[in-house]
C-alpha cells in the first residue's frame, strides 16, 4: 500500500480555465497570451505568498499585486478596483471547476488498487475547502488526509506540512508520493521531506537551479502520462 497526496491548484484541475474566463469578462485585449499572463500571476503570487500567509500583506493587497504586476509585464496598467473585480470573477468561476475525465481515472486507479489518498495544498482555508468540495474529492479522500496551509500554519515547501500529513495515514507504509505542478513547493518540498515527488508539468516549466541533479523525481507532462506512470508504479493487491 502507498499513500499518494495531491496538490489542488493546476494539478487536480486546470487553473487556467477560470482565469481565462475572468480575463475575458474584464479586459478587452483578447490578443494577449493568456497562458503567459497566468504564469506571471502565479510567479508574482509566489513572491508574496509568505507575506499573505503571515498577515503582513492583506489578502486583497496580494490579489491586487499579482494581477497588476502580471499585466505590467505586458505594458498594461489597471487600478486596484479593476484588479479586485477581476479576482471576484476568477473566484466565481472557480466555483464551477470540475475534474477532467482523465484525472478522475487517475484517482479511480489509486482507489481501486487500495492506496490511501490525500491533499496537501497552500492557500486560505475556506477558499481551498470550497474548491475541494466543488471537485467532490470526498469520494476518494478522507477529511483527515486534507492539509491546508492556512489551517496548520505551515506551507509547502516546508517539511512540516509533509510530516503532518503522514500522521493520519491509516495504513502502515514507507511509500509516500506527492503529485503537484509547482517545482519548488511540490517537487523540492516533497523530496526534501523524504517523499517521492511526481512533477505534473503540463505547462512545460524548466526545473530551477538545475535541480534535476540534486533530487530524484518523476516528471510527466499530461494527465494521461500521470495515469500511465501510476499504473506502472503502484502495486495491486
Labels describing this entry:
6 strands, 2 domains, alpha/beta, DNA polymerase, domain 1, 11% strand, 237 residues, Rossmann fold, six-stranded parallel sheet, metal ion binding
Task: Write up what this structure looks like.
- This protein is α/β, with parallel strands linked by helices and about 240 residues long.
- The protein folds into two domains: about 5-15 and about 95-235, Rossmann fold, CATH 3.40.50; about 15-95, DNA polymerase, domain 1 (Orthogonal Bundle), CATH 1.10.150.
- The chain contains ten helices and six strands, in the order E-H-H-H-H-H-E-H-E-H-H-E-H-E-E-H.
- Strands 3-2-1-4-5-6 form a six-stranded parallel sheet, with helices on both faces.
- Helix 1 (about 15-25) crosses helix 4 and helix 3 crosses helix 4 (about 80-95).
- The termini are close together.
- The mean pLDDT is about 95.
- It holds the Pfam family HAD_2.
Order of helices and strands: EHHHHHEHEHHEHEEH
Number of strands: 6
Structural class: alpha/beta
Q: Describe the global form.
A: globular
Number of domains: 2
- Give the name of the CATH architecture of the largest domain: 3-Layer(aba) Sandwich
Report the total helices: 10
Broad CATH class of the largest domain: Alpha Beta
User: Unreliable stretches, pLDDT < 50, 5 or more residues?
Assistant: none
Amino acid at each position: 500500500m502507498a499513500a499518494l497526496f495531491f496538490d489542488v491548484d493546476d494539478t487536480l484541475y486546470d487553473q487556467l480555465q477560470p482565469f481565462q474566463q475572468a480575463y475575458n469578462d474584464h479586459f478587452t485585449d483578447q490578443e494577449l497570451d493568456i497562458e503567459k499572463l497566468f504564469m506571471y500571476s502565479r510567479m508574482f503570487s509566489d513572491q508574496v505568498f509568505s507575506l499573505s500567509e503571515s498577515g503582513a500583506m492583506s489578502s486583497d493587497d496580494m490579489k491586487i499585486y499579482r494581477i497588476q504586476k502580471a499585466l505590467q509585464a505586458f505594458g498594461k496598467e489597471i487600478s486596484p478596483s479593476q484588479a479586485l473585480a477581476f479576482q471576484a470573477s476568477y473566484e466565481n468561476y472557480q466555483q464551477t471547476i470540475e475534474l477532467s475525465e482523465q484525472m478522475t481515472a487517475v484517482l479511480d486507479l489509486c482507489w481501486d488498487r487500495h492506496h490511501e489518498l490525500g491533499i496537501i495544498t497552500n492557500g486560505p482555508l475556506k477558499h481551498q475547502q470550497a474548491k475541494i468540495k466543488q471537485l467532490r474529492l470526498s469520494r476518494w479522500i478522507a477529511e483527515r488526509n486534507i492539509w491546508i496551509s492556512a489551517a496548520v500554519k505551515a506551507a509547502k515547501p516546508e517539511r512540516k506540512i509533509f510530516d503532518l500529513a503522514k500522521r493520519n495515514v491509516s495504513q502502515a507504509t514507507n511509500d509516500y508520493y506527492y503529485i503537484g505542478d509547482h517545482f519548488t513547493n511540490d517537487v523540492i518540498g516533497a523530496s526534501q521531506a523524504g517523499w517521492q515527488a511526481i512533477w505534473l508539468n503540463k505547462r512545460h516549466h524548466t526545473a530551477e537551479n538545475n535541480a534535476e541533479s540534486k533530487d530524484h523525481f518523476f516528471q510527466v507532462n499530461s494527465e494521461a502520462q500521470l495515469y500511465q506512470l501510476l499504473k506502472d508504479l503502484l502495486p495491486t493487491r
